[in-house]
Specification:
four-stranded mixed sheet
Length: 302
């Protein structure tokens, strides 16, 4: 079982010719509403990649909650442990330029009230995985990580949005997934002078005993695990936007680990899923399914 403790949002996405600079307004022709949030995206990604998934978090009692939950429910993510709270469902405001790059502002809403009680109630055991991100309260992420490790399960922390994690949370992490920017923020928080994400990942693995993956966008990913380096290129695709590419990577990687593929095989499938997500607009609508992931992984890496 994979348990995801994380955020649920509704994404308001607008296309723009170029992303705005500081203090600048740019115009878009319209906008679309999509379900999103890092927790929800990763839960859906793991489920579509073939895993049994439970999502723990919080939504409001508003109309946005139904939008946020629709695809999760349709795909069979277990939502029985979600809380309904007296706060608006989280929302993200996303601008996507003609090249597929994006800028995102997130309003936490109900996510700020997410609690880890349900993770403890689930009584995780050996073989279980917990996925964490940083869009819900960190003290609650810490509670969830303690519960998972106490039961013999493993913890995957996606350090997004970027920031310095609580030292105990980092210590409870088995696998850390960051992008290049997040890797640099982490190194700075630890007082390290390394400026190369590869070197940071190697040091996290070597000194902290935490397997570390740095995603490199269209350049693929580098991972260090047990002193062994894996460097894989991403499959080449025609990108529409990059929204949810990282979340698709994380969810598919976790599902592959759960299915017994091992670190390298999981890395391959994560990259395939992240690349496929770039070919469809929006967050959850772009999350790929297992058959497509396996097909692209086979073409790209075998």
């Amino acid at each position: 079982m994979i348990t995801v403790f994380g955020s649920l949002n509704v994404d308001l996405v607008t296309p723009v010719e170029r992303l705005p600079g500081a203090g600048e307004t740019v115009l878009g022709p319209g906008y679309a509403l999509h379900p999103g949030g890092k927790g929800a995206n990763q839960a859906l990604a793991a489920r579509r990649a073939g895993a049994e998934v439970t999502l723990v978090g919080a939504v409001g009692r508003d109309g946005f909650a139904e939008i946020a939950l629709r695809l999760l429910a349709e795909d069979g993510v277990d939502l029985s442990h979600l809380a309904r709270v007296e706060a608006p469902t989280g929302a993200a405001f996303i601008a996507v330029d003609a090249a597929g790059s994006n800028q995102i502002v997130v309003a936490a809403g109900a996510n700020a009230l997410a609690r880890a009680d349900a993770v403890e109630t689930l009584k995780p055991g050996e073989g279980d995985l917990l996925l964490l991100q940083r869009e819900v309260p960190e003290n609650e992420c810490l509670r969830a990580a303690r519960a998972m490790r106490a039961g013999g399960g493993r913890v995957i922390l996606n350090l997004a949005p970027a920031g310095a994690p609580e030292p105990e949370l980092l210590a409870l992490t088995d696998i850390l997934i960051v992008n290049e920017h997040e890797a640099l923020i982490l190194a700075g928080s630890l007082g390290w002078v390394e400026a190369e994400p590869d070197a940071i990942a190697q040091r996290i693995d070597g000194e902290r005993g935490i397997a570390c993956i740095v995603t490199l966008g269209s350049a693929g990913a580098v991972g260090w695990h047990g002193g062994v380096r894996r460097r894989l290129e991403a499959p080449v695709v025609d990108a529409v936007d990059t929204v949810a590419a990282g979340d698709s990577f994380v969810g598919a990687f976790a599902a592959a680990l759960q299915a017994g593929f091992g670190f390298s095989g999981a890395l391959q499938r994560g990259l395939a899923a992240g690349s496929l997500a770039c070919t469809v607009a929006g967050a959850q609508p772009s999350v790929p399914r297992r058959e497509a992931i396996e097909a692209l992984a086979g073409k790209s890496f075998l």
